[in-house]
Write a structure and sequence with these properties.
By secondary structure, this protein is mostly helical. The chain has one domain. The protein has 15 helices and two strands. α1 runs antiparallel to α14, α3 runs parallel beside α10 and α8 packs antiparallel against α9.
């Protein structure tokens, strides 16, 4: 099914989304604050970049000489990599970091330094995932290797009975795939689907950019460490892969419990490509918040424990999600709409595990 064939009913005056949007706008206007980044966001950006780049500088300049200290640096870099993905480039590539479009573009390109592509990310995440959350064949976040089943509409295999056990290990390979083959395959696929035009660049220009960026990334984080660090090449390669495993695992366990859950719906369009619910209601039905009271956790994950607010207001910087969540929840209740939220991150992970088990057996 092609993306253009799927459409949601038009919003109407006084409906849930227009009401919530008006109230959120009034909140920012009354408080006299911008919906974009504030001082705390700038400080967080510096912290996340430091967690990633400082260990790299320390090990490359020989401050740490033992293998295990250097290996620990790679592990910390994995935490920083995930933090950059969750808290920095995510907002920028949504246009939420700054009202200055050029600044968003510059900050969004930090994804290059963690092995990704901002263009592919924008198409997969902004265009497809945010538009068609949990819609089979549209939301690529549901597409996985055959031995992982994230939707009740996917074909079930016998091995899926055990996916609630082994899925956690394979989550760690998420960014490794990102940094190697996935971006090239995605770009070719998006050309076939005519999605490249959403980024206002030609396919050849994007492919050239991708090759240059990937080459620079591997020179900086693989070739140079192999040459300059006093360890066998395979130990450096193992450390690099371990860094990605840490980052991939963190990212997966944050994003997966937001949508692949027992509470969420996996609606399909009718034969004409029409969805049953309006887009904003669809977001409420397919998205889950978790750990809303955990400030430190929310700080690290870029407010993405408030996934409902993020999906409804992706152009608002995540530092404001907690405040506007009170507005969104109240408005949803007034319209008798669902507002799914798990009290803790552990509760969300357990619910996700149970749903993986259910998908593997049903």
């Amino acid at each position: 099914m092609e993306r253009k064939a799927v459409q949601f009913p038009r919003p109407s005056a006084g409906d849930f989304y227009n009401t919530a949007r008006k109230r959120v706008h009034e909140y920012f206007k009354t408080a006299g604050i911008s919906k974009h980044a504030n001082t705390s966001m700038v400080i967080k950006t510096f912290c996340m970049l430091s967690i990633y780049f400082v260990p790299y500088i320390l090990m490359m300049t020989g401050v740490f000489a033992s293998f295990w200290m250097v290996f620990a640096c790679w592990m910390v870099m994995g935490i920083g990599m995930a933090g950059i993905g969750l808290s920095v480039m995510h907002d920028a590539n949504h246009g939420a970091y700054s009202k200055n479009r050029n600044l968003n573009t510059i900050i969004g390109q930090v994804i290059w330094f963690i092995g990704g592509s901002s263009v592919n990310w924008k198409i997969q995440h902004n265009v497809l995932h945010h538009s068609f959350t949990n819609v089979d064949h549209m939301d690529e976040d549901l597409e996985a290797v055959p031995f992982l089943r994230f939707s009740p509409h996917k074909k079930r295999l016998g091995i899926h009975k055990l996916q609630h056990i082994y899925a956690w290990f394979f989550y760690g390979f998420m960014t490794i795939m990102w940094a190697t083959t996935k971006d090239f395959k995605q770009l070719a696929r998006y050309k076939r689907k005519d999605l490249i035009k959403t980024q206002k660049k030609s396919f050849s220009a994007l492919m050239t950019e991708l090759v240059i960026v990937k080459t620079g990334y591997y020179i900086l984080f693989v070739i140079l460490p192999m040459i300059l660090l006093p360890f066998p090449w395979w130990q450096t390669l193992l450390s690099f892969l371990a860094m990605h495993f840490v980052a991939g695992f963190i990212l997966a366990i944050i994003f997966q419990p937001a949508h692949v859950m027992p509470d969420t719906a996996f609606p399909l369009p009718d034969d004409q490509g029409n969805m049953e619910n309006k887009w904003a209601i669809h977001q409420l039905m397919t998205t889950v918040n978790f750990a809303p009271k955990s400030r430190l956790f929310s700080w690290y994950v870029g407010g993405l424990n408030f996934q409902i607010e993020h999906h409804l207001f992706p152009n608002v910087c995540h530092v404001h999600y907690k405040k506007i969540s009170e507005i969104v929840r109240k408005t949803a209740e007034e319209f008798s709409l669902p507002y799914y939220s798990k009290p803790t991150f552990f509760d969300a992970l357990m619910a996700h595990k149970n749903f993986l088990k259910q998908l593997g057996r049903a």
